[in-house]
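Teaching note: in complex prediction, the entire set of molecules is handled at once rather than each chain in isolation. The prompt given to students was simply: 'Predict the structure of this complex.' The entities are:
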Amino acid sequence: MKNYTVLLDEIVSYGSIPNEPSEIVPILIVISIVVAIAIIATIIAVKRNKSK
Amino acid sequence: MSIKWKTASTNWFMHFCVEVVCFYCLYRLFDGGDYWWIMAISYDALAFAPQVVIGEFFEKHPKIKPFPIGGITLIIGAIIMILGENAGTLFFTVELIGLFFLTIGNGIMHIAGALRTLRVSDGRLSESAIFVGGGSFGVITGRLLAKSSGAFIVIMILMLAATILSELETRSDGSDNNFIKIPCKHDLVKDIPIAHIVLILGGIVVVRGYIGYGLPTAWNQTTIQTIFLFCFMGLGKMLGGVLSDIFGARKVGVLSCLIAIPCLLISNNIMWLSLIGVALFSMTMAITLGGLVSALKDKPGIAFGVTTLGLFLGTAPMFFFGLPSRMICDILITVMSILSATGFMYCLKKNR
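The expected output is the structure of the full assembly:
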């Protein structure tokens, strides 16, 4: 693993998902919603800028 | 070219302190433990992705002061997380609440620094690049300090000082929070559709966020070498902006992408050559930001948010799939660097 950068090398080391699904799924849903909102906000901003 | 050093250095220090606090908490509480994966991905997502929305909010409400709000939110989050260490069965719940405040505070401080440095820079990239560069130094400092429990009070005082300094700096030129209304003068991109620019430059951030994990650094075995690695990343980010202002963003962007390829591929065991490659690889950060700000002129907060969203989208696959083999990584570094250079040539003006 030391062949790779150590930016967050622990994540590489623990590459497999260690937690119980019951803990992970709700958090992944929240993360997905946050990312979706961010992408939609970006698209709206680009569209608004285009129309100016 | 006269860089506004006071703005640049204050925001460098603020960014440094923000990352010290965040990485101190993450590594102190979770490093290698059962909750490392879930806390690391939650931190990445909640700190990086919402910055588009946070940027839009502070641009719409210029009377609200982002530095004090962000700094205090971050400090509250850090205190909840550190106190939560002794919460027993409620540990995970308390840590998630603390992480929420920490990441939102982190996002607000990033947006505040970006808005300040981009809007007062008269179209230069240096100020925002110097601000961005502070993060790498903070990440490694926070990681190293995480081994000492006594360091927490010191970094809290530093964070408070950074918040006060950043707020005072916005008042030092008499603009107070009105800096959020100063128009951005960046003019780096060609007259092509904004959607193309956002997709291409955002895409460059995504792919470079991903392959950033796969840079060959077999030489990196000791703490001091890791410190060098992070320092060169930070220096690269800062130099990317400064050199762009001197020689032109397009020239610096294309050359740094192309020269980085041989430096990275042949230097797996040669530290200094590898560090030069890492610095060159990091230079594109300021240039993509400059390009996005030029396209979304009156929305620098959103432009900065697009880069952080891109970084999250680039790093997210790591959490699920890890890294491909060394050979695939090398191929990706080569192909993606060439594509990034092509993207810069397509989007950026020749004389800029």
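Point out the following to students. Chain B touches chain A through 57 residues (CB under 8 Å). Residues 203 and 310 of chain B are 7 Å apart (CA to CA).
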